[in-house]
Amino acid sequence: MAWSVGTLTFVLVRTLPGDMAYKIAASRYGDDAVSTASAAAVRAELGLDSPAWQQYFHWLSNLITLDLGDSLVSGAPVVQELQHQLGYTLLLAVCAMLVSVIIAFPLGILSGARPSSAVDNSIMVGSTFVRAQPVFSLGLLLIFLFAMELNWLPVAGFGEPRHLILPALTLGLSLAAISNRIIRSSTINVLHSAYYQFARIKGMSRFSTFCRHGIRNILLPVIAFMGIQLIGLIEGVIMVESVFAWPGIGHGLSHAVFARDIPMLQGAALVFGLMFVALNTLIDVCCARLDPRGVRQ
Against a cut of 0.90, is the pTM above it? Predict the structure, then answer.
């Protein structure tokens, strides 16, 4: 997986338009100070004039020893920069998932318990509106409302807990807009299932039936869906971190694209790929714990 993500990133970076040496020199010295001589110096320093296959095998040999190289702009080791940024990205992702769960589960279960009611239709309209917005557009709407109109929260930045609220809320709302509809469908299926109705006929209370036979079965398809939704989470992290100047890997990745910082770009893409695999493995383990029948088969 690390090889495929790194190789794909290597190829895509070299297909970007423009002279890579000029872009890197402009990132180092500024657009006004860059010249043909400075670009040539950067090209010679970084070996950009060598054949692409030599650069590729040089990168591949370093990857085997877990050496991701140094940033072409800052000169700092990529591993060190990613370690610093990874903490911010994980914090944002975990908080966004918590916000999504807190919003999506009550709304989804409420809609599923009363399908086609006024409450269900209202939640569907709200979810459709939120989901129709690109995540950066949703972030700008929240900035306009809570930071510029009400002046409750800062527009961007980091260092205090209140800086995390708007980015986590933006990402959490975007995720909850889809997952609450999955929870609604799962709730309807469980509440109308034979085993659930049989538990009610036996005399179990509505609350006991839901706790013992409802929650676990509702969760199973929802958790499986969350594995698919992780793609949206990674996409959203890149955009949200850029909008709110949150110093995570997504923010670093966007800067690396504009600066043609190849080692940083490959390192950030590699970390996102590994995160995706690790989180999907965690989802599979959770599904196996909830429904061991799939493991036995």
Answer: no
